[in-house]
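2024-03-11 09:14:02 DEBUG pipeline.ingest accepted 1 chain
2024-03-11 09:14:02 DEBUG pipeline.ingest length=386
2024-03-11 09:14:03 DEBUG pipeline.predict start
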Amino acid sequence: MQIGIIGSGAMGSGIAQVAASASHPTLIFDNNPGALHRSAEKTAAGLEAQVQKGKLSKEEAERILGNITYVSNLSACSNCELIIEAIVENLEVKKQLIRELEMIVSETCIIATNTSSLSVTSIAASCKKANRVIGIHFFNPAIIMPLVEIIPAIQTNEETLQKSCKIIASWGKTIVKAKDTPGFIVNRVARPFYGEAFKMMEEGFADMATMDWALKEKGGFKMGPFELTDFIGHDVNYAVTESVWTAFYFEPRFRPSISQKRLVEANYLGRKSGKGFYEYTEGCTKPEPDKNEILAVEIFERVLVMLINEAADAIYMKITSPNDLETAMTKGVNYPKGLLAWANEFGIEKTVTLLDKLYEKYRDPRYRVCPLLMEMTENNCLFKLI
């Protein structure tokens, strides 16, 4: 089966390497020859590094490289049976590409979008045969991250869904299925990890270093929200937050941070620009946290109950199954445990009580309790997980 990847950036190149590693002849299309050249160089360098570390044989690296062909003419993708676009996160640009692809590929070719937050249904609507369009969302870096979200549009037929799941699973990826709603699973449920921490920082509840330390120390997260967004890049992280917030008709739970917006405006994008919430220039050291145990627990619990509330709402609104949600959050953003299991452990009633206290303090609808959590408290029950 020939695979086509549209876009030779980091994500497109990564997906192409995954497909090529699974023995598929794979085409990478980009209308920028320079971008194609950089993609080829980076892929070759990455595979050579794996060989040098003893993680890959030279023969295997050569086999993977031999499966990838770089093309600058879209018509070269005419024989592909699955095409995944990984171009700029712009709805109109993606829709135009889908229209062009439909004129080139066969009737049976699956056309997939790697969008992280745009409407798959809207993208599919640009295609005359919309039932073959689906969302296949990889996480960066695609060659390392195990999770892939599969998002059928409302037009997607069952054959396209099942075939897509089978192909991606055969590549060694862990798949979860999500309803076509803004942010899908991970980019929706994870928003409070950043948003609530930013809000606490803005109101002077605690400083950045203290919150990063508290969430690692008390929650077991590998990185705190400030160092994580510096690592991701504020241009990327803020854009997803704003997209989800806007797509949910300005839902207060997803309200972006003014502080993060100012970083983007100043081009303080994090590690890649040398400055974000923290300084990364030579000689700079991170500020020390206030290792106050009581404060640390307050920080952790406030962020945790917001995450639990968002996870519960995703289940309440039938965005995904409980088990897929747990898989998504542990394999997509490396949370130390699934949020529903965490809710059972932390206490559903305790979660509701803390959220109610936050609502009483702020009168902000971002703290309203998910109806599912209220029902579970009344019935004294837990999330059922397999």
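2024-03-11 09:14:41 DEBUG pipeline.report The mean pLDDT is 97.
2024-03-11 09:14:41 DEBUG pipeline.predict end
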